[in-house]
């Protein structure tokens, strides 16, 4: 089943998450129509290779053309229209930057895998529960309801101001009419009656002025209360959700809803400001003793301007945190002289501001680093698929400045990966006579000068964003706080779901907890130190817990990803636990686990039974990335042979724990059929018979522990079959043992 087919079977709450990251940059209809083709391409590699990205973009356009021909024959007008639009988008937007579409598609596929992994997990962790609480959802609905009510109130006040203006014009006309009469006429009874009517009208005007000012005051008060409480909480919650999403957590949404609220409030405040300006205009035409306008209007206008300043300042946000396109799953880790991207948005979306706001990017204030590349750009509504007022910097590069001695500060392998920096942005908004200076900053970033520093730098990013919601504590690692173990384990599971497409279950997390804190630990409220996580070596090892875990992630990503996604690698299980699991199983039952003593190693252990009925266990020396580069792991499991003393070589691996036939579990991942006898001509030239590598181990009957497996022996399946026909098992054993390493 394709990944897209699995996505379509998700519950509605997960489908809503999928819907959030498909937009006009990569429309969902293309994902749907070209599902299998899209999933068969290596978009992640193309994201770092412009030539490959251009080829994939051209092939994508060809695929769209083929779909367009098909739907044209079916006369599906709507789909024809959408496909033509998509084709124009692909050719126009990405032709000059094909790696951008590769990054987008790669990110979408990765997010799908993360959501599929989250959907397969039986229980949400504490962090994810806190982000999706019913209290938060209820507050979101209340904010939207109150903003709508405020907008309606401001519009109703507009009608009151218009009525007041009409009433004053009538009063002004009637008053001027009387003033134009001769003195004799003014003494008539009719005129005296009219003067009484004008006095009554003036009283009404006074009442309406007070009423309008009161309504304006209430609107301003409601906006003030909303901004000070619920809207501020909503914005802080969104920023917290962004932090969590950056370290692999659930995709954060809600920014469009916040934009709608901010924009409506800004429109309401500007509307109130115009109403106050209209009152000032009415004041210049008519005033009187006890007139409320000159007393109340200045205070109200000052409050409106104050709220506008605060609203604009809060609306300037970093929509997408700094990230190198080459490492999309490691945001906020920046390598010197390597480009990174960052996107900002102004949540107040007003047409008058399009291309009028120029944003400048800088880094730190200590002059240790500078930003190279285009660091001043204008915000606009054209580049974003949803038409938001935003700006994306795509060509920024951090560069470390030379010290006065002529050498660079900490450049090189010793650059401190716990040192935090900040990318800052500033701009100025000039609108309707207001000038507002805006500033915002990215979450703290870690600078590296060598890619080998990336694992530890990423550990710093994880720890910071897990432990604090303070967006700018650059001295955090001077005294890093402890983290709740239960939350840390949840984040570690996210590393697997976001990076390799499948999270960790409770048994796997229990093993990690034991590795961090010791046997039988109750980790619900346990506090883990930063040193224990990333600084101190594991007992008896020359590496830290995080280095060990990061090596496993790298191994999965590069060599055993399909097997991991299928869920056939138990992975995190101790030697003691694996024996408990296997001891009562059918001989030949095996499981796959990650090595605890070798970085980035995977091994398999199987259960066997001696003639006297005793149960034995055998584990092979862990396979690392070097050996797995020579032979796929699924083929190793298929072809693995054991030579027992005086016995014919055979594959001891029969059932994947608990009882899945090996070929049923791994058959679809085998690269070829091992038993097909190749003809000399099949070698592709010079008459050689193609050879394959067969992993072989030798086990002695008087030992319960296996010797280390040999290097992979270059023997073709056909040759091995011939040997079995013409040689005795002893002869084969003697020949192979000559090639086995001696320990």
Largest sheet, strands/sense/barrel: 5 strands, mixed
Distance between the termini: 46 Å
C-alpha-based Rg, rounded:
35 Å
- Class computed from helices, strands and strand pairing: alpha+beta
Under CATH, the topology of the largest domain can be stated as: Glutathione S-transferase Yfyf (Class Pi), Chain A, domain 2
The total of helices stands at 25
The gross shape turns out to be elongated
CATH class of the largest domain: Mainly Alpha
Unreliable residue runs: 406-414, 675-685, 702-719, 734-743
CATH superfamily of the largest domain: STAT transcription factor, all-alpha domain
Just name the CATH architecture of the largest domain.
Answer: Up-down Bundle
User: How many structural domains can be distinguished in the coordinates?
Assistant: 4
**Helicity, in percent?**
40-55%
Kindly state the mean pLDDT as a whole number?
83
Characterization of this structure:
The chain has 743 residues and is an alpha+beta fold. The C terminus is likely disordered. The chain is 51% helix and 14% strand. The protein starts with a helix and ends in a 6-residue tail after the last helix. It folds into 4 domains: 118 residues, STAT transcription factor, N-terminal domain (Transcription Factor, Stat-4); 181 residues, Glutathione S-transferase Yfyf (Class Pi), Chain A, domain 2; 113 residues, STAT transcription factor, DNA-binding domain (Immunoglobulin-like, Sandwich), CATH 2.60.40.630; 164 residues, SHC Adaptor Protein. Strands 16-15-14-18-19 form a 5-stranded mixed β-sheet. A 4-stranded antiparallel β-sheet has the order 1-3-7-5. A 4-stranded antiparallel β-sheet has the order 6-4-9-10. Strand 9 and strand 10 form a beta hairpin. One of its GO terms (cellular component) is cytoplasm. Belongs to the transcription factor STAT family. It is found in: Cytoplasm; Nucleus. Keywords: Acetylation, Activator, ADP-ribosylation, Coiled coil, Cytoplasm, DNA-binding, Isopeptide bond, Methylation, Nucleus, Phosphoprotein, SH2 domain, Transcription, Transcription regulation, Ubl conjugation.
């Amino acid at each position: 089943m394709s990944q897209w087919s699995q996505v379509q079977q998700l519950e509605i709450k997960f489908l809503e998450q999928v819907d959030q990251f498909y937009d006009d940059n990569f429309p969902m209809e293309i994902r749907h129509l070209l599902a299998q083709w899209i999933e068969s391409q290596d978009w992640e590699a193309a994201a770092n290779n412009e030539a490959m990205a251009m080829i994939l973009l051209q092939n994508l356009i060809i695929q769209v053309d083929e779909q367009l021909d098909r739907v044209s024959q079916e006369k599906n007008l709507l789909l024809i229209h959408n496909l033509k639009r998509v084709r124009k988008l692909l050719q126009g937007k990405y032709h000059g930057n094909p790696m951008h579409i590769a990054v987008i598609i790669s990110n979408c596929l990765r997010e799908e895998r993360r959501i599929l992994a989250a959907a397969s997990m039986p229980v949400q962790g504490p962090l994810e529960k806190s982000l999706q609480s019913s209290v938060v959802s209820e507050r979101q609905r209340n904010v939207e309801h109150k903003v709508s009510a405020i907008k309606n109130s401001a519009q109703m006040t507009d009608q009151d101001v218009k009525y007041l203006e009409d009433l004053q014009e009538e009063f002004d006309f009637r008053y001027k009419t009387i003033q134009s009469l001769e003195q004799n006429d003014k003494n008539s009874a009719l005129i005296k009656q009219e003067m009484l009517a004008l006095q009554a009208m003036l009283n009404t005007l006074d009442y309406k002025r007070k009423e309008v000012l009161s309504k304006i005051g209430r609107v301003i008060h409601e906006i003030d209360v909303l901004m000070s409480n619920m809207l501020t909480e909503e914005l802080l919650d969104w920023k917290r959700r962004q932090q969590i999403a950056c370290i692999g957590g659930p995709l954060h949404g809600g920014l469009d809803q916040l934009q709608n609220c901010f924009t409506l409030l800004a429109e309401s405040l500007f509307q109130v400001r115009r109403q106050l300006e209209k009152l000032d205009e009415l004041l210049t035409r008519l005033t009187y003793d006890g007139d409320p306008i000159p007393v109340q209007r200045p205070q109200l206008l000052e409050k409106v301007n104050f709220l506008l300043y605060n609203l604009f300042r809060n609306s300037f946000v970093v929509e997408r945190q700094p990230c190198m396109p080459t490492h999309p799953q490691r945001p906020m880790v920046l390598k010197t002289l390597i480009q990174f991207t960052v996107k900002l948005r102004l949540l107040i979306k007003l047409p008058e501001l399009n291309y009028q706001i120029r944003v400048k990017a800088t880094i730190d204030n200590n002059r240790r680093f500078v930003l190279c590349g285009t660091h001043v750009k204008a915000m606009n509504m054209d580049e974003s698929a949803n038409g938001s007022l935003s700006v994306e910097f795509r060509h920024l590069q951090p560069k470390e400045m030379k010290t006065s001695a002529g050498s660079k500060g900490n450049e090189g392998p010793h650059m401190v990966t716990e040192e935090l920096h900040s990318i800052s942005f500033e701009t100025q908004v000039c609108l309707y006579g207001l000038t507002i200076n805006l500033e915002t900053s990215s979450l703290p970033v870690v600078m590296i000068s060598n890619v080998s520093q990336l694992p530890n730098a990423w550990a710093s990013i994880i720890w910071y964003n897990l432990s604090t919601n303070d967006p700018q504590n650059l001295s955090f690692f001077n005294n890093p706080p402890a983290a709740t173990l239960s939350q840390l384990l949840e984040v570690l599971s996210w590393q697997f779901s976001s990076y390799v497409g499948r999270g960790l279950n409770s048994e796997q997390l229990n093993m990690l907890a034991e590795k961090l804190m010791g046997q039988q630990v109750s980790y619900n409220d346990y506090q883990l130190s930063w040193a224990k996580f990333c600084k101190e070596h594991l007992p008896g090892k020359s590496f830290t817990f995080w280095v060990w875990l990061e090596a496993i992630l790298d191994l999965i990503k590069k060599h055993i990803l399909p097997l991991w996604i299928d869920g056939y690698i138990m992975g995190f299980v101790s030697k003691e636990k694996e024996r408990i699991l296997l001891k009562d199983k059918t001989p030949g039952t095996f499981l796959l686990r990650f090595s605890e003593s070798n970085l980035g190693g995977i091994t398999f252990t199987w259960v066997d039974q001696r003639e006297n009925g005793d149960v034995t266990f055998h584990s092979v020396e862990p396979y690392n990335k070097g050996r797995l580069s020579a032979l796929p792991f699924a083929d190793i499991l298929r072809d693995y042979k054991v030579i027992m003393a005086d016995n014919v070589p055979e594959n001891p691996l029969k059932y994947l724990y608990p009882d899945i036939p090996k070929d049923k579990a791994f058959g679809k991942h085998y690269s070829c059929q091992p038993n097909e006898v190749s003809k000399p001509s099949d070698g592709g030239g010079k008459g050689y018979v193609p050879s394959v590598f067969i992993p072989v181990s030798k086990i002695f009957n008087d030992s319960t522990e296996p010797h280390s497996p040999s290097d992979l022996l270059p023997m073709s399946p056909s040759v091995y079959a011939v040997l079995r026909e013409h040689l005795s098992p002893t002869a084969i054993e003697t020949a192979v043992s000559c090639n086995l390493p001696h320990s």
